[in-house]
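Lab notes, practical 5.
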Amino acid sequence: MIKAISWLLTRKCNLKCNYCGITRNNKNSPYPSLNYFLKNEMTTDFILKGLKYFKKHNKDIFHIFLGGEPILRSDLPTIINFCNNNNIHYTIISNNTDQIQDKVKKLFSSVEYIEGFSVSVDPIIYEKNNSSDRFLKSQQGLNNLMKYKNGIYDPVAEITVDSENLKYLMELSEDLTSKGICSDITFIDIVKNKYYDFSNITDPSILVQKSDKLLEIFDYIIKNNLNVHMPEILPKIFNILPANMDCKIQNNIHNLTIDSDGSVRLCLRIRGTETPKNNLFSYLNSDGELNKMLIENIKIDKSNYCQKCNWTCPLMSNSNKMIHIKEKV
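Output from the prediction step:
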C-alpha cells in the first residue's frame, strides 16, 4: 500500500540552488530537456483526479507537493482547497523567499487553512557574508514562515545537511524548536550516475559521513526532546550515511513520485526509463487499484540504475508514523 506521494508539481523555480538538478538542463542526462517539462506540466484536472484516486487507494495517504517551486503554479489554491475539502493529508515544500511572497499571500488568502507548509532552512543560515541562493532561501524562507505560522497546522523546516554545515545542525534544531517549528532533517545526496537527476552534487566530499560528532548531535536532539520529525529514525539515517540506503522499493511500493509531466518516476532521486513511459493513470485506476505493470517497471529501473542513496522519505513511509500533522484546532 502506498503511504506517501511526492508530487513534482512543476520544475519552474525562482532560484538555482547549487545542489538541485530538477530545475536545470544537464547535458549528459538521458532524459528530456527542462523545456519539455515546462511545456508539458500536469493540468489541474489531472492532479485532482490523481488525488481522488489515491484517496480510494489509501484514505490516509500523505501527499508532498514540491517542485521546482510549487507556489509558482497558479492553481495551487485549487489543489489545496480540494485536499482540505476531502480530508487529504499534505504538506507544501516551498522556498518561501521574498521573490514569491505575492503568490504566497494569495495562497493563504485563498484557502481556509494550510495543513502542512515546509520551508527549506539549511544550517548555512548561520554563515556570515554568504549571498548564495541557498543562504538567501534559508534566511528569507524562515523569516516569512514565521509570519504565516499561525495559519499552518504543521510548520516545518526542511533541513539539508552537508559536511560543511553539519556543525550548525544542533544550534539550528534548538532555534527552530524555540520558534515552534518542526525540523525535518535530511542529508545532502549525490549523483551516482547520469540517471540520478534530482541532485546536482557530484563531489563526494560534501556528503556527511558517520562520525562520533553526528552521534552526539542525534543523541542531544533525542534526549532534549527537540521538535524534530520522527526522531526515532535518526539512528536509521545514521546507518545509511553517506549514501548507502537500499529502500527495496521493488518489494513493497509504499512511496511513489509523480513527475511534473504526470509520468511516474522510479523514485524522487531517479527518474528511470521504463517506469516513466506511462503516466499515472496507466498505473492507477478509478478504484485506487495499482496496475501490476508498475511493479514490473520499477523492478527493471531499480535493478538497472539504483546505486543507493540517503533519501529519508522511504524510511518514513515504511513506518506507521508518516503523517506528522498536529491536531487541528
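Observations recorded by the TA: DSSP finds eleven helices and eight strands in the chain. The first helix runs from residue 34 to 39.
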